[in-house]
Amino acid sequence: MSSSLPSPRRVRARLRRRPAGDTSGGTVWLFDLDNTLHDASHAIFPAINRLMTAYVARVLGCDEATASRVRVDYWQRYGATLLGMIRHHGVDPADFLRAAHEFPALAEMVRVRRGLAAHLRRLPGRKILVTNAPQDYARAVLEIAGIRHCFERVVAIEQMWVHGHLRPKPDRRMLRRLLAQARIAPHRAVLVEDTVSHLKRYAGTGIRTAWVTGYLRTVAPSRPHVVPAAPAAVHDDGSRRDAAVRSTLAAEDRRRAGHAVQERSVTLVAAETQAPQAQPDNVPRVRARVPNRPAYVDIKVQSMHQLQRRMRRTGS
Ligand SMILES: [Mg+2]
């Protein structure tokens, strides 16, 4: 009989694989990573932004101001710099993402709130990480944040190919396939995200949504896509055009400072790391003005602590 028992080594390995915390609830939490579980606006997003622009400049053989303009164009047309780079320049997505997430001092850049691991552990239900970032980066951030053991699985951008196309969030087919593979009924899943446009995209799919607003930052006034003019070249045509674009956008922002513009600015700044931000690093990043809970958001919280407390109160 004893021969059928698993070896102590196998038991230890199984325990290591089993996610810690309360997995008894019927809910399956699909957690985003950046600006949901940790503060990526502080150092990581600006660094990714610089690395992406440098990558585009290298591939196109152009200067960084031109690369910034190209990124804005691709971001507006395809929703991500990466998708434009694949389509027009045939770049290898793995190579692009690796280059954009290379941080020699990642441990110093990850900022988490105290007690994060405990709050996640106490949240009842299975937990899966679903991030548009690459696998190695996601796992490294989870390790540094001390929460790797809270998740049964990490679904990173490498796992988001559907029928030969890269389909990151907020693609519906990708998430539907993920739920089917993990045998999760949509009504049991809660997508926890800072990017409100992602939550909006999944409205009507049966998936519940939780919007985490605590790490959202923006730059004043509300539009991040401004290419700064190089001071040494104020008089050339490109800079004049940039200045004209800047003043047009600023005027537009002043005119349309309502709810929709606020929501868009929050989305753009937080919308993954592909959102090109060409401001210099010394531009102050201020807390975003967060609009009221839209109808397609089921729960709006500032932090994991608040989410856990809310769930405990409602008992769901
Ligand atoms: Mg995010």
TrEMBL record:
It comes from the Bacteria. Residues 9-18 have a biased composition (Basic residues). InterPro entries: HAD-like_sf, HAD-SF_hydro_IA, HAD_sf, Pyr-5-nucltdase. Residues 1-22 are annotated as: Disordered. PANTHER family: HALOACID DEHALOGENASE-LIKE HYDROLASE. This is Haloacid dehalogenase. It comes from Cupriavidus nantongensis. The lineage of its organism: Bacteria, Pseudomonadati, Pseudomonadota, Betaproteobacteria, Burkholderiales.
